[in-house]
Design brief:
alpha+beta, Aminopeptidase, 7 strands, 25% helix, globular, transferase, NAT_camello-type, GNAT family N-acetyltransferase
Length: 167
C-alpha cells in the first residue's frame, strides 16, 4: 500500500527570489482560464515580473504559498490607485490546481484583509471576471458585495465583476 507523503505548505511574504515563480503561476493560471494580455487581464501588467518590488511600497503586501518548496500561489493587497486613500485593492490572487480546494485562498485573503485594516484602509475593492467562478464564491463568502461601477484606475478593462467590502 502506497501512502502519499504529507505536503509541506508555507505561506510567507514575497521575497525577490519569488518573482519569477509567482509570475509563472499567474501566467499558467491565466492561460488555463483564457485570460489573455490583449484583454487587459493581470498578465498584461508591466510589473508582473517584479512583484516583490511592487509590493514593497507603503500600504502594500503580497504573500506566496509554497508547496514542498515550490511557489504554487499568491495574493496581495495594495492601495487602490486614482481613488480614495482609504480604499485598498485585493490583487493577483492566483493558485495552481494543486493548491486549490485546501482553504489557502481564504486564509491568504483573510491575512490580506487584516493587513489592510492595520494599514488604516476602510474598504477593500477587487476586480475579477465571471470565468473565475470559484474566486467569486470565495469573495462573496468573505463579505464582498457586487458593485456596478469600477473604482480606481486598474487598467483591467475586461474585469467585469467588481466587488467592495467594508473593513
Amino acid at each position: 500500500m502506497n501512502v502519499a507523503a504529507p505536503q509541506t505548505l508555507t505561506l510567507r511574504r514575497i521575497m525577490p527570489e519569488h518573482n519569477a515563480a509567482i509570475a509563472s503561476v499567474i501566467r499558467q493560471v491565466s492561460a488555463e482560464y483564457g485570460l489573455t494580455a490583449d484583454k487587459g487581464y493581470t498578465v498584461a501588467d508591466p510589473n508582473l515580473d517584479e512583484l516583490y518590488q511592487l509590493y514593497s511600497q507603503p500600504g502594500a503586501a503580497y504573500w506566496v504559498v509554497e508547496q514542498d518548496g515550490q511557489v504554487v500561489g499568491g495574493g496581495g493587497v495594495a492601495p487602490l490607485g486614482c481613488s480614495e486613500p482609504d480604499i485598498c485593492e485585493l490583487q493577483k490572487m492566483y493558485f495552481l490546481p494543486s493548491a486549490r480546494g485546501q482553504g489557502l485562498a481564504k486564509k491568504l485573503a483573510l491575512m490580506a484583509l487584516d493587513y489592510a485594516r492595520e494599514q488604516g484602509f476602510r474598504h477593500c475593492y477587487l476586480e475579477t471576471t465571471e470565468f473565475l467562478r470559484e474566486a467569486i464564491g470565495l469573495y462573496e463568502h468573505l463579505g464582498f458585495e457586487h458593485i456596478s461601477e469600477p473604482l480606481g484606475c486598474t487598467g483591467h478593462v475586461d474585469c467585469e465583476v467588481r466587488m467592495l467590502k467594508a473593513l
